Amino acid sequence: MRHMLNPLDFSVEEIDQLLTLASDIEHNLPKYAHVCDGRKLATLFYEPSTRTRLSFESAMLSLGGSVLGFSSADSSSAAKGESVSDTIRTISCYADIAAMRHPKEGAALVASLASRIPVINAGDGGHQHPTQTLTDLMTIRSLTGRLGHMTIGLCGDLKFGRTVHSLINAMVRYPHIRFVLIAPDELRVPEYIREDVLKANHIDFKEVNNLDEAMPELDILYMTRVQRERFFNEEDYIRLKDCYILDRKKMKLAREDMYVLHPLPRVNEISTEVDSDPRAAYFKQVQYGVYVRMALIMTLLEVEKPC
Ligand code: CP
After folding, report:
1. How far is ligand 1, taken at its centre, from the CA of residue 59, in Å?
2. Cα–Cα 20 to 30 A to 246, which of 40, 96, 103, 154?
């Protein structure tokens, strides 16, 4: 039995197979309509979500399976003090696979150790969000035709943004990747990512404060929200929340073949006037999230690809 706790749980070859399956699903959706008949997905969400929970549910329903679960800790027995381990032992009696989001780093790992079914980390605190990364990889590969040989600008809250941490982890395995890390000093990428991931893998990267100056050199601009829920005080959040706002004027500085990604939800960091720019790819990214989660469910449940 396999889990998906971290993008590195899958080799580059396995991710390639998964993205190829997701692409086949995208182009031949009806073929997959019954491959998970009779199977059940449990969504255990201790933190708010729109895209991740509903795309998992949409994915399982599109495969012919069923879904059950809870969308907040308050509506589960966690509110009475039940541990994650006891919850997943219980859920193992009800479902074939589980996707779990939790505010604590490592919660999905704890669940996996007690589980009798595959556990998917749907976000654990400020740590990892591997299925967002699979979505990001599929988006980049579909739009540019490659996953290496590119400069990726990561902009915003690089300290608490788990999507950024997972994406860096995954992208360093591809050839000739360069990062421009665009953040205020207080929201720099954590030291363990700089030292243990970027420097340890000899990745070319630089840290800057200025988004305008970085724009012309980027193949991908990955914008992120300042993560209010992870701040210790509201004052700091208010001071930093609008540190970068991507607008039409800034887009003029970018190359014609650059793409803008964002895991969403956005608050103010991308002006809605950018949405109509053909380089704005964040709603395409949402759609790819369904196909990639369908492919992941099939892979973890060891479902045969239909002819
Ligand atoms: N990208 C993402 O994780 O969105 P949600 O918080 O809405 O699930």
Report:
1. 15
2. 103
